[in-house]
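User: Please go through the entry that follows and flag anything odd:
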Amino acid sequence: MIFPSLYNAPIVYYALLLAKNSSVIIEQYDHYTKQTYRNRCRILGGNGPMDMHIPIVKNHGKKTVFKNVKVDYDSPWQAVHWKSINSAYASAPYFEFIQDYIEPVYSRKYTFLIDLNCELLSITSELLNIDINHVLSKQYAFIEPESDIREAIHPKRAFQMKSIEYTPLPYHQVFADRYGFVKDLSILDLLFNEGQNAGGILKRSIL
């Protein structure tokens, strides 16, 4: 299965990784498109769900192969993202443990977006005890749309694939008393709130 490279990807992404349970290919030869999870993730804060965006270096008028997309550091987005994460999850049960793994990423500068995404993928997979070998694609492969996960996980629409039955399972969330259970958030939400229980929730969410 070929997975897209996403920034702190949604929970369904990791449920699929866990179900795959082997080596997976991370796509790096697709064209970068705006308004996807490739450079954004969704967390739950005191004011409700919020998207955090990584700014990228613009390549005006030209399509850019994803592996060549560069991160823009003209604004202090790393500090802003970590401040938002800290504000949202400081009171979560597993924040103090998980932050030691995640926070250092926000003090390093990665030239390419795919390197940042892959670093976070490795860290979060380890925290979830997902033992999968991630390798980067060597070329772009055509896949029938109904079986292509690369475009199935998108912030503008619910996940849907004919061959996969996915049911978001409710779990503890810091602001559930205000908003009820909010699904389709970043894996960070599940990790900070459920810690070592996160893997079991992922396993039960997909067939």
